[in-house]
């Protein structure tokens, strides 16, 4: 069969599709990855066929938000709040039933639709539909943050499924919103996400159905112990770390596996989107370096400002899949790659969530399971790292989650499931 994989041109999101793309190719299927033009390097370097569609992603503040955002601030009934604040005030990852009222969820979708979903979709959706109608995929696998994929699948009659990179916060919030809306008169309900998607679909001769939001099914790499319960049929798939083209650095071979070692990696998403890290990395490292352990920090550019490089081994990049097995703990922002790679290696995690997408919720759920710790105040970081290094129960529970992660079906084992579901759902 022909399988079209699509996401927006952000490196970490492209990387999350690579293992399943290669599993499909190894099984003999025709595979293509389509995204914005600037994603070419990341797709081609993974050895996968690439199709560039649409226009480059606009810089923050320059995207068309349909008039919902003005002068870099989002509006709500309480006034204005800045770009960096709204994801916490209107949290798609909220799970408290008392908070998940219709009005709250309406605000969440009114914000996320123009500021996230349209941002990553509008510039490529028409180009992707055109490509899909020409290439004729049997199956479209799409990133949960970008809706060009399900629109293209609907337009060309292909089966389609989401591929998650973390917790299914969209599916959870969407289910809560629909339940809350069902308790109100239809005339008193708005649905910003549906209204936008229906307009896009009608432009291509189709109309809205709820599977355009949550997929006909969902491929989920998160272990059941951490995942959210949602209505979308879930296909569990083991997370396979892919760090992009990399050389295992020679200094890794020199590390003593018996020496306590802490990896610090804070990602680049918050810096790229908001212009700075949520927490200055130097403040985190100061206390950790005083614990008498070896600290390895993967930092880029401005993240190195103020870091004492005499007490911390600072590197631009090291493949986490090779580094983390040599570490006794990891401090990270909770991004998809760092969180999941630590999970599959059973490394206790100390999380300083950047509060983008699901990082705060992952930190809380991992802490609740006793396999990690969440930093709520920066000065407490070193004490939490010390606990992660010495608390045997923490390590045992991290090991238990590792066994659960490794027990999930590998990508190659998921391929026959995709074949059966594609045959069932395709309409051509």
UniProtKB/TrEMBL annotation:
Segments forming domain Erythromycin biosynthesis protein CIII-like C-terminal: 283-421
Keyword check for Transferase: yes
The UniProt record lists the keyword Glycosyltransferase: yes
Domain Erythromycin biosynthesis protein CIII-like N-terminal: 22-267
Alphabetical keyword list: Antibiotic biosynthesis, Glycosyltransferase, Transferase
Gene3D superfamilies: Glycogen Phosphorylase B
Pfam families: EryCIII-like_C, EryCIII-like_N
Sections of the chain in a coiled coil: none
Family: Belongs to the glycosyltransferase 28 family.
Descriptive protein name: Activator-dependent family glycosyltransferase
Organism: Micromonospora aurantiaca
